[in-house]
Amino acid sequence: MCAAQLARAGRSVLVIDHARRIAEKIRISGGGRCNFTNRQVGVEHFISENPAFARSALARYTPQDFIALVERHGIAFHEKHRGQLFCDRSSQDIIDLLLAECRLGPVQILAECAVSAIRALPVSEGGASGGYALETSQGPVRCHHLVIACGGLSIPKIGASDFGYQVARQFGHRIVTPAPALVPLTFDATQLPVLPGLSLPVRIACPSTWARRGTMQFDEDMLFTHKGLSGPAILQISSYRDPHAALSIDLAPGLDVLAHLKQLRQGNRTSLNQVLSQRLPRRLVEALVPAGEGARRLADLSDAVLRQTDVSLKGLRALPTGDEGYAKAEVTRGGVATQELNQSSMESRLQRGLFFIGEVVDVTGWLGGYNFQWAWSSAVACARAIAAAPA
Question: CA-to-CA distance for 97 and 103, rounded, in angstroms?
Fold first, then answer.
């Protein structure tokens, strides 16, 4: 995206990618259809030591701007859930869009090219950056500006590495400790019912030092797995959870279970499980309601039993034992500290001519197209700054 913007400005660009296939992260995203943005994007949808850092770039290149680009290329898309936009056909449409934009100017792309060393060249007279010399597997490279856009540690099977963090540290930057984000969570088998494959809408919350109010909450679908829990609700909360904080899960959001059961109890000869199964998955009800109580007629149950049923369904608490790691994480939380970057240009405050954009920066979005929008917006901010600089 950064190269494409610079192509339109007529600047000469070299894109170096160590992978064999360009834009592999785009290719596999969104189930192969790429959730390329969200209609509503604000700083409240991002995690960072300084969430306000993202405001400038997001405001100057918005979801509507990227949607307009998609429409200009004739790509069909649809809204799936809460503003999430996906390609109708394939993620390849977004890759083709970016490659087509790059062809508008002098952009060269080197795939399967590894960078073994980076050296800053002496500063020229007047204080401008002297540029950079790179040693690569396809020969030496010199450039005026160097943009690090290589993402985080998520999905190592497609080549993710700590290369970006290494470069940042080389030039004195602090790294906010990386961690898997948007990732399934694991649990001790005694904490949860064993219901692999069962999915349902929940309200999930946990205390979090990353949340502005000290607690984070999401209303999303949750999936029971063989290892623990997944689905959008878990992926969202995984980015915010503190290691020793239990999750609070309401399995019946929008339903006052106690009031509902009391209202139906008078003369009701139907069993408790049958009544609950009219509103909730039967497997879930049978797993959480003691068999002796679940088989009894609702009319015969005491307030105490109904209260306990309410607690079981509305107040499930479970402490994750961990997560499924970078192999299953969609993004990486943490990265290059934003205090050392210029928010309007993404340029290093420590090293002139050096830029960091996208996931390698300590800006991590929610599930739902926010991380792609951050990639587009930060790339455009960077490209505009470089385009405005002396050639």
Answer: 10
